[in-house]
Structure formats: C-alpha cells, structure tokens
Amino acid sequence: MKCLEQVKTLSVSMLASAAKRVVVGVDVGGTNTDAVVLNFETDALKVLASHKTPTTHDVTSGVKNAVSTVINHVLESSPLELTQINIGTTHFVNALIQRRDLVKVSVIRLCGLASTELPPFVDFPEDLRKHIDGGTCMANGGYEFDGKEIARVDEKEIITFLKKIEKDGVANIVVAGIFSPVRIDHEEFVYKIIKDYNPELSVTLSHNIGQIGLLQRENSAILNESLKPLCRKTIAQFNSALSDIGIRCPIYLTKNDGTVMENDLAMEYPVHTISSGPTNSMRGAAYMSGVKDALVVDIGGTTTDVGLISKGFPRLSSKEFRICGIRTNFNIPDVKSIGLGGGSYVRPEGNDVNVGPQSAGLKIVEESLVFSSPGKIEKKLITATDISVAAMISSLGNSENVKHLEKGFVEKAVKVIKRKLEDCIDEAKTTSEDIPVILVGGGHILVDKNDKLEGVSEIIIPEHSEVANAIGAALSQVAGSVENVKSLEDNINLPEMEKRILESMKPDMSEEEKRNTQKAIRNDFYKKVHSTLLKEARQLARDKAIKNGAEEKSIYVLEEGDIPLAYLPGSASRFYVKVIGDLEISRRSTYLISSKLNQRDTPCSQNGPVEVRKQLYTSTGKSLVEDIAETCHQMKSQCPAFNTDGEWVLSEFDVECISIGAGILGSGGGGSPYLGKLKALKALKEGKQIRVANPVRMMQKVDDENDLVVIAAIMGAPIITEEKLCGKECINSLQCMMDLYSDGYSDGEISKNGNLIKQEETIEYIDDYQSSEKSLTDTASRSMGKKQIVGIMSAEIGGLNSVEPFIIAAEKNMPVLDCDGMGRAFPELQMFTPLIYGMLPYPSTLGDVQGRRAVVLKCNTAKDLENYFRKVVVEMGCMAGVVISSLQKRDVLGKTVMFTTSLAWRIGKAVINARNAKKPTADAILGITGGKVLIIGKIAEVIRKTEAGFNTGHVIIKSINEKHETLKVEFQNENLVATISTKHREEVVAMVPDLITIIDSDNGDPVPTELVRYGLRVTVLVLPAHDILRTEQALRFVGPAAFGYPNLTYKPCGPSVNLKSVDSEYN
User: Pfam family example for this protein (predicted)?
Assistant: First the structure.
C-alpha cells in the first residue's frame, strides 16, 4: 500500500514537472466568447490554444465551452499547471442598458449646506431612477478644495438614516463626500459607522470609484453599488461553471484600464470592469504585435472599436462620459465605437450604399451569401463579408454566391466601409501625424491591406489577431493610481524663500534685475515643491499597486503629471500618477490538470437549450437599433405659454432650449449651463414657476427710483462648481442685499448696527454683514422700506449664469427680466454693460452657503469690486453668489442687452428642430443670430496653459474643404480672436466682443475651451455682438485691447440682429 502511494506521488510529481504553467484568458463579447491559453514560462508569452464560440444569453455556457475547448486542446500534448483564469465581460453594461438585475441604492452625501440644490439621482433617466433610487441623506461632512472641513460628520444623523432605510429594505449604500478625492477621512469614518451598525450592509465610497466632479463621481458609485449583487451572482456562476468542468482556480476579472483584479475585489468594484472588452483587445494587440504606441482597430462581427495605446496600455478618457444616459467619470478607455463589422448589412439607398449599423452578427453563417449553399441565396442578406469576398479583398466561403452583385454597388460599399474606418480612426487620433494601426478581430477581412488608409502609416496584423481580446484578458498586470489636488504655496517654506530673496538682493541691482532674481528664486522653490508632491503621489501609487498584488521590482510609471487649476489660489494643481506591475505568477499556487475536462453544452444552473442572441449595443452602450443620442434630441417643439400678466411661464422644453442657446452664447466660456438647467428643471418638478418678463413692458409699471432689479451670478472656479454644485449662495447674497436696504442703506452709507465697516484702499466694506431686522425680511419678502426688488436678471446670457437667476426667481416668486448685462459671457465684473455705462458698482454683496455675507458699501471702480470679491471668494471656498448692485428703470432700459433670454431660447429651439429634421445646426443658429461660418473642419492642434488664473491657449482647425485653410482661435476662458491662414494670406477674421463659438458639426453642441481636443469635427461661427458692446466706451472694457491685443482694431463681423422678445411673437 505504501509502495502504491509512493508511485502515485511520483506520478503526480512527474506530471507536474512536465506540465506547462499557464493562464487562461476569456473575453465575453456581444457576439462571440473567445478564450486562449497563455504559457508564462518563457520571457515571450506563447499562445498554446485559442477558441471562438457564440456568446450565450446566460454568459456562463459560452465561457464553459470556450475554456474546456482550449484546455482540452493543450492537454493533447502536455499536462497544465493552471495559475488563474482572467475573464472580461460586457455582462454588467448590458444590465444597465436593459435595466435588469439592478438593486436599489441609498446615498449618503457628506456636504453640509453645500450642493443641497442638486441631490443624488438628479440627472438619472427617470426609468433607471425608479429601479435604483433607494433614498438619500444630505448629511453634515465634506471638505473644501484645500482639505478644510465644510462641516463635521454627525454620527447620530447617519444612524437615523440607516434605521430608515433598514425599514425600507435597502441594504446597498453609497457614501459621497464633497472633495473626497482630496481628503478621504469623512467617507472612511462614515463607512466605519455603517459597518458598526450592520456589518452586512454593502457600501461604496465614492473616492474609490471616480474623480473630482461630485455628480459624476456619485453617479459612478451608485451604478457600482447597484451592480454589486449581479456581480457576485455572475462570479459565483463562473466558479460553478468552471467547477462543473473540473476546474478550481482563482478567477480574476479584467478592468477598464487594462489590468486585472481578484474576484473579491471585482465584487466590490464592478464598474471598474464595465468596459474591459475594448481594453482587452487593445492590450492583446499591443502585446502580440510588439508595438506599444499605435491605434488598435478591433473589427468584430457587429461593431468596430478604435482606441489609442500608449506604452502598451489604452489611453483613458480624460473627460466625463455617459453610460446609458448617465454622466460618470471613472477610468474608462477612450474608445470610439461604430456599428461596422463582418456581419453588417449592406443595403442600397437611392444612388448611395449604406453599411450597418444593424448586423447579422453571430448568425452570419445563416444569413450571408458566401456561407450559403449554391442556389439557395434568394432570401439571404448582403453583409460586409460578402462585399469583401466580392471585391476580392478576402477569400472565404462560396465566392460564386456573390458574383451577381453589380461592380458599381460593390465598389461603393467598399468605399463606405473604408470611409467609416478612416473617420473613426481620425476621431481617435490625438495628433495629425500618420500613426501605425494594429488590426485585430475576425472582421479584419474587411480591410484591403494594399489600399492605404488615410492617416495611417502602416497596417499591422499580429498573429492570433482574431482572439486579441482573449490574449489581452490573459495578460496579468495590476495597477495603483492616485489623484489629488494640492496647493504648491501651502507646501513652500515661505520664511525660507523670503530669506533667500533678501540675501540675493544687491545694492547695485536695477529694479528689473531685482524682479528677475526674485522670480528665479520663487520658481526654484515652486519647482522643488512640485517635484516633492509628485514624488509623494508616485509612492502612494506604488503602495497601492503592491497592495493589489504587484511584484515590487516590476512596477513602473505608466503616466504622471499635474494640471494647473484656473481661479484657485496658491498655484493649485491636480496631481495624478498611475503605476503598473506584474502579478507574481511564478510564486503563486498552481492547479494541475492532466486529464481532459468534462465538456457539456447545457447552461449553468439552467435547463433547456442555450439561448444565443444578436448583439444590439456597441461596447460603449450605444444602441445599434436606434441612435440613443438622436432619441434624446427628439423633443417635441412647444409654443411658449403666458400668464394673465403677459409673463412667459417656462416649461421644461423652454429650459432645455435656453440651456442649449446659453452654451452657444458662452463663446467657449462661462461654464456649462448644465448644472443650472438641472436646478431649473428640479424647481419646475417641485411645482414652482419660472416667469420671464418683457423688460420694456414691465418698466412701464415701476417706480423710477425705488423699484430695483438685481443681478445674481455664481462667482468662482469652475472646478469648485463641479464639486460643490451650488447650494443657496445666490439666495443668501440676495437676502443680504434686501437686508441692507431694509436697514437703511443709501448712497454708500449705512448705520453700523453692530457691523464693523472697514476701509481698504478704494473699497469700503463689511466682512460679514449681520442684519438688525432679519425677522422683517425673510426669504419670501421683497419689501425694504421705500425700496423694493421687482425682478432679477442674468449678469451674462452665456454659460452657467444664464440659468442661475431662474432658480432664485422661482424661490422668491419674482420674474426674470428678458435681458442681461453682456449679451454673451465675459470673465470679469467690470465687463457688465450697466457698469461700463456708468452705473455705480455698489452696493454689491457676496454670499456663501455657510451664511457669510460680504458687502461692498462703496468703491471707486468696477475693477476694484472685481479684485476685492475675487479675494473674498477664495476665503469662501472659491465659490459664492454675487449680487452686483441694483438697477433702476433707466439702467435696465438704457444699459442692458435686451431680449437675450428670448435669443437663447430661439437658438436652442432652432438647434433641436435642425437635429430632428437632420439639417445643419450651424445654418439654424445663424438664421437666428446672423453672422457667418468661419470654417468647417477638424481640430488639428490644441495648446493650453493657465496664466493669472485663466485658462488660455489656442486651437487650430483644419478645413475639410479643398481650400486648405486653417483657423487659429485664441482663447482666455472665452474665445477671443480668430485668424484664417492659407498659403497666400493670414487674416484676423473675428475678434471680441463678437462671439466666436465652436460647435460640434454633427449635433450643434457647443464645445467649450476646456473640452476642445484633437480630432473633433467642428464648425466655427462668428456671431455679431450687440451694438451696446461695440461703442468706443464699451470697447475699452470688452474690445481686443482689454484682452491683451493692443494692436488689433475692432472690426465688426456684420450688423447686429434686431432682437425680439418671445412674448411679442407668441403672446
């Protein structure tokens, strides 16, 4: 007996020594499930076997089939030591698309008084919200951008909410704290409270999911938590399915960034796997080709994914993106996906040919011509594969079945396929230079390798290209990443720096030499601090990678850097570092497989035949049956409604139109109107009214001296607005103005009433105004002694502040005047037209969500007001609500730009109608505004930097027509100057104050300066400024010289359009 055991032991030992150490990679796509076996014993990984099988509806059946097939194939030559199985799947994005297998999620937002106007789920599609919304708690907590507390976490408040959701049966929670990516303490503390209360509750902390941008990060965390039960179930099914065929080993899931994570971690962070399909293809293509910097074009049976790889990893999206209509911002590959594949249907459309997006997909053998029996093609459909065979690009199937296709039809189809690929490649590129393309996927047979693709230096088809996605899944690396916001100034030893400066000053130095020496020393200190902060972030990233299982000696930096942040003090920057390391596979336990696996075709835990379905969505969640984006735009045009006073009562459609128009009138700046739109829509859903009054008609009824109109706006840094969202800053500032007048303010004078009035150069101010009669002026009252606020207006019709007055007016039950103070967007207060034309810049108020109310009683100039408020807004957390003085009847009628809310509405309505009719949106816009198209083309270059707190730089657009023109647009937050260049001339064709606006050529969406990037197809328009901005007086403040172009003399782009109010046309 003992001898027999020794023989068995020896036999196992001999098998193990002969076995090959392997990892199995699996990619579950929309059409096919692919699997490979990779041998990790040599420096160069070797593919031992591969297999492609149809993806099944239950997912696991296809995985079982693919895994058992590849392993059994390798076992024919040698036993295996299996380390792990890595799986990439589209299962979770499909669940979101189909609104199935999702659970309700409760959200605890740590915000104090900030962000309260836009609660969690505010921008979820209503049908998805019904599936997921499990209640919210706007709790104390959260941080400012510099890590200072907004409010302390209240443990009792958290416990009370937990008891409530426990009664409601909700067991999944998201904790999202303001600026948690900067400081995680509050989120971690609340996590401990939750787990102490009930360890069984499932929790997602937002800082583990997304980046700065509260709504997007919170949305990402909500999706993650809602998918957790499905993820646990799916991984359990994977384990069960593999156990059924005799495999017991660790399962890893592939991540969006091209790395892998253990199934325990994947069950906590399913959204990190949601777009791993395209990533797997890109990683596999890079590895098998040996090319680390290129474009990967993965052509499947139904879709084509195109993405850029750098250092062998996919370039990640640098901006927010939408999944199933939801704004998110977690790491995801920047992939362009189109409905083009080997099974794409090809149909004649008049004289043209249409290819895709609908496809035979995995039913290509049943539906296409070349795979049909001779003489049985009457009911078959023409696919892209049929075209490839007919054009003799590829050779497969029965070519006799496509010989009847007309040569002209085939040639047109080939051109359409080529153009679609070239357009997608061009959009994915980041420079205008030709770039290598690695072609993978079964659909690569559509590409004629001998016909050059525009923008491509060479086409590379690596070995095993048809299963590059599974190879990418098998590559076993892990990541560690860090992102935070740091102030360089806060980390500088200021006394030491000043000492160095003082010691370097010599008596014989000129003033210029002193300035240069001082600047050089400061730069030296800033560089050292910058280097230290980056080094600290690098170490944190390395620590995370090691924690995730990386072999320390293999870790390297994939990307790192920092982005200066506009308007923030102390030279603040967003630092980011990502490192990559190899899993320690050589030291891991292995599982010996020496006999063939049990191969069964029945689905896991399911009776009956395996269900196979066609792919209906791209890898990025876009429908192949209908264009989701277009569906969103199919809003029915509505006529405006009016009340008995003749005021225009806004509907949701009106708000949508105004928001679109305001974005276009922002001229590249002003901030996105999106957050304001959400707040306005929320007010309407709560039953409040937003009324817009014709200022001419309204001013006929007011008291010339005592009836006032106020201007309210958000002031601060765009990044802060994205994180803190806006609370009641403007409401608080307006209330302060009302209290000021109620307490007797007149002509810059007020009794102190316990307030300390301070003087600083030309400014007379109060740090934090306390009213003596708060009870007399609550938020519902507008009476202030003799004075009375009768309406509110936008400071600027372009961007975020165009919509902000709507929310205040709804809250205060007062009308918004159909006019503004800029006719567009400008960056500073002194560019407000009433101030340009002599209105006093005081009294003005600045309020934050914490209740601080700064007041300027007197100042010499509007620029003094701008400088003072910019300083105070930093103390308020870099975001506040400003009320700029108070307009009387003569100011409204003589110093504002009339009917601009109507203008924004008309522009937005024209864009929506053009989209619905599939007509050019640029023509629709110009039909309302006047002006002209400067260029239609593609962004070829973007240069940007931060100077004096402003986002500055230029963008170059290359024309798509045959004139070979380029247009250079220079910007400082807003677009300022446009210069056209040809071989023979260079000419400035547009300049501020005229509006230079860049729109997406396809849908008319405005492209702000912070989102311009290489490859975008855009149309650049110049719209005429209102005449009030074109006078000699106005040009001193808003002309070219005011923005640093003293040598440019303003030339109008054309006559101003005579604007009309909506009520004059429809009422």
Answer: S-Me-THD_N
